[in-house]
Specification:
Blueprint lengths: L7 E4 H15 L3 E5 L9 H6 L4 E3 L4 H13 L3 E7 H5 L3 H9 L6 E5 L17 H6 L5 E4 L3 H13 L4 E4 L4 E4 L12 E2 L6 E5 L3 H14 L4 E5 L2 E3 L3 H11 L2 E8 L4 H12 L4 E6 L9 H7 L4 H13 L2
Parallel strand pairs: 2-3, 2-4, 4-5, 5-7, 6-7, 10-11, 10-13, 13-14
Antiparallel strand pairs: 1-8, 6-12, 9-11
Length: about 325
């Protein structure tokens, strides 16, 4: 069973921009704030069509989070937009104190996440943001894999009451989730398998699917699950799959500490201890290069996933 179809390549940030544009037309309570990166976040159309609901705060991300928190008091649904590094690390205190602690209905939308920010280098390539955000009580954490899923997630979080961190990227990547429904907290099984479970998030979902096709040629049956919501984690889907396969590989564009892999490990440790291998950045910062070069160097690709699968199967 294969539940995906590759159509084209498109950047996930455009999915956010198109979703926000649609929300501007359908939900008068949606407002948008940006920290001097309107073009990069694809917020231009919203700003043009709804200037009275768009706030350009300049390079003042901490202030942006405070304004967003305040806007919720009047019933508005604020969407903040800047790079993932500035959406989390630079403003963690403001998010914790003004948004998470008081459960404000703010949607923190973060582009250019992970290594695939590329040439801007290590200072902009945050690999700790999922961990930072998932540790905040009450914070929902979503990491989408393609244009279609990012647009669907943008629409979904507007209807969800509570703070959300929505993480997406810069480069053009395959669009393959066009026909898949999006529900916060519900994983999506993309292939059926019996030998190994591969759970992936963000850009690594496509790499996992490519790995599964190559593994099939080797006689290894891989079940691929798209974990778009890191928190709350769909533990039921994970446990159901590993009960069948007996081992699991997690794959993410994030530090191996604090991300999807650790959430899955906690789930398994407390329910059904299972052999697990991690495909993630090995506790290091990034560097300046093209997204493709960085994904290869740091082992965030189908080749590394295949090696992890072979290793974890040997541990069953």
């Amino acid at each position: 069973m294969k539940k995906y179809t590759y159509t084209e390549k498109k950047d996930t940030r455009s999915g956010f921009g198109d979703g926000l544009t649609e929300l501007g037309k359908t939900n008068p309570n949606v407002v948008a704030l940006c920290a001097d990166l309107t073009g990069s976040l694809k917020m231009n159309e919203f700003a043009k069509n709804h200037p009275e609901r768009f706030f350009q705060v300049g390079i003042a991300e901490a202030n942006m989070m405070g304004i967003a928190a305040g806007l919720t008091i009047g019933g508005k649904i604020p969407f903040t937009g800047t790079f993932a590094n500035f959406s989390t690390g630079r403003v963690y205190d403001q998010i914790r104190q003004s948004i998470a602690y008081s459960d404000k209905n703010v949607k923190i939308c973060a582009s250019h996440a992970g290594l695939t920010l590329g040439e801007d280098g290590a200072t902009h390539q945050i690999l700790e943001d999922i961990g930072l955000m998932k540790m905040l009580p009450g914070m929902t954490v979503i990491n989408t894999c393609d244009y279609s899923q990012t647009k669907a997630a943008t629409l979904a979080i507007a209807e969800y009451e509570g703070p959300v961190y929505l993480r997406f990227g810069r480069p053009s990547v395959p669009v393959f989730m066009t026909d898949q429904p999006f529900e916060i907290g519900k994983a999506i099984q993309l292939t059926e398998g019996t030998d190994v479970t591969i759970v992936a998030t963000g850009h690594l979902v496509w790499e996992a699917l490519q790995a599964a096709e190559q593994l099939e040629e080797k006689g290894i049956s891989a079940e691929v699950i798209n974990i778009h919501t890191i928190k709350p984690l769909d533990e039921e889907a994970i446990l159901k799959s590993v009960a069948k396969t007996g081992c699991i590989v997690t794959a993410e564009e994030h530090n191996k500490y604090g991300g999807l892999g650790e959430s899955v490990a906690r789930c398994l440790a407390t329910n059904n201890p299972t052999p697990q291998e991690f495909v993630a950045v090995n506790d290091s910062f990034g560097e300046s290069a093209t997204p493709a070069e960085l994904m290869k160097k740091y082992g965030l690709n189908d080749e590394t996933i295949i090696k992890a699968v072979e290793k974890v199967i040997s541990r069953k």
